[in-house]
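Exercise: predict the fold of this chain.
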Amino acid sequence: MRKFVIIILSFMMITGLSACDTVDINNPEVPQQPENTEDDNEEDDSEESMKLKITVDSAVFTATLQDNATTTAFKKLLPMTISMTEHAGNEKYYSLPNSLPTNSFNPGTIQNGDLMLYGSQTLVLFYKSFSTSYSYTRLGKVDDATGLASALGSGSVTVTFEAE
């Protein structure tokens, strides 16, 4: 009986394998994935989710987010309205309630409109360019930072971040 079961299983495996795609060793082409159609919006949705709307009072700015683990975790917090604190005359910051993944580096120069994470919990929106020796994880950058400094002002300010 045991031999019969082994023969049956072997036969099933052989016939099952013949139904699978095979690759010619002499011509190892990788099967092509079907192209996206216009109705397939999965790629479009991910591209759209890479945009961030930043609202300060009546001023609205759009930022482009990086594609990394930090922004993936950050986007899960959205939408959020926070009170950002002034620091050093060039940035606003907010301490997030939880840590985000980091991949920090020293950019050398901070640009007006950079959106960064300092450490693992401090969200920073820069409104002036300057040289730095500190390390940050890049979240994104405001697409057009014209008027960002005047919108953020010189003290604490309420800022809304939301996926666009």
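Check your answer against the key: The chain has four helices and ten strands.
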